[in-house]
UniProtKB/TrEMBL annotation:
Protein name in UniProt: DC1 domain-containing protein
Keyword annotations of the record: Metal-binding, Repeat, Zinc, Zinc-finger
Highest taxon, organism lineage: Eukaryota
Native species: Erythranthe guttata (Yellow monkey flower)
Segments passing through the bilayer: none
Keyword DNA damage: no
Length: 249
């Protein structure tokens, strides 16, 4: 008797820690995306890109591929003291958090430090440390707050004030801009190209975010070091660039 032919096993559908049902990887062209009215369940921004995840059961659960890929734990130069943990829901009973980067409220995914109460939108946490933008002739660098004593600044793009939040700055021109104005209407950075944000693995799957040499303003934090440690020697070295983490940037 011949051997029974074995049917190929079906590949298991991916799952995400934030949702109880399996997800389908789907690809859409821009025209098809207009038929989907639900935003990304992680960042709460309009769906974009060609790689999306859709729940096999729920009609309103979608994730950008880049949001699906977000690391569960990161160390960020803004908050080097503790690991920031990715939460699928705000840590607070009111169901919202205030982002320490952009100053706006959020109800989607956030990177959270429980001891300090630090909260970052998932997309703010991976904003590049250096960008080019149509609004200004020079490269803009990320700064973790205004240098003025009152912590206020005026955005050169929207002409509106800002206070106690991250901003993009051209130091020689004293040019300041809100994160959201540089980012544009969606999750991405408007205008020209963006500088790569290096990511590095350390033990336990924690990802250390660090600027490439020369990409962070002197006032924004360490350039290519975290707690005095050269990031080029952390863990297994560079594993990805920011474009792989956040495809809609």
């Amino acid at each position: 008797m011949g051997n029974k032919s074995s049917k190929p096993k079906k590949e298991a559908l991916p799952k995400h820690f934030s949702h109880r049902h399996p997800l389908n990887l789907i690809t859409h062209d821009p025209e098809t995306l207009t038929l989907i009215t639900s935003p990304c369940s992680a960042c709460k921004l309009e769906l974009s890109g060609t790689r999306l995840y859709s729940c096999t059961v729920c009609n309103d659960f979608f994730l950008h591929g880049s949001c699906f890929d977000m690391p569960k734990e990161i160390i960020h130069p803004f908050h080097k003291e503790h690991v920031l943990v990715l939460l699928s829901k705000p840590a607070y009973k009111e169901g919202r958090f205030r982002c320490d980067a952009c100053g706006e409220k959020g109800k989607g995914f956030s990177y959270h430090c429980d001891p300090c109460g630090t909260d970052l939108h998932n997309y703010c946490a991976v904003m590049p440390f250096s960008v080019t933008h149509d609004c200004h002739v020079h490269r803009l660098k990320l700064v973790f707050g205004s240098l003025y004593a009152n912590k206020k600044f005026s955005c050169a793009i929207c002409q509106m004030p800002g206070s106690r939040q991250w901003l993009y700055r051209c130091r020689p021109c004293e040019f300041y801009a809100h994160l959201k104005c540089v980012r544009g209407g969606g999750g991405g950075v408007g205008g020209g190209g963006i500088a790569a944000l290096g990511t590095f693995t350390v033990g336990g799957g924690i990802v250390v975010l660090g600027a490439l040499p020369g990409e962070m303003d002197d006032d924004g934090g360490d350039d290519d070091e975290i707690d005095g440690q050269d990031l080029s020697d952390v863990g297994n070295g560079a594993v990805d660039l920011i474009g792989a983490l956040l495809g809609f940037l």
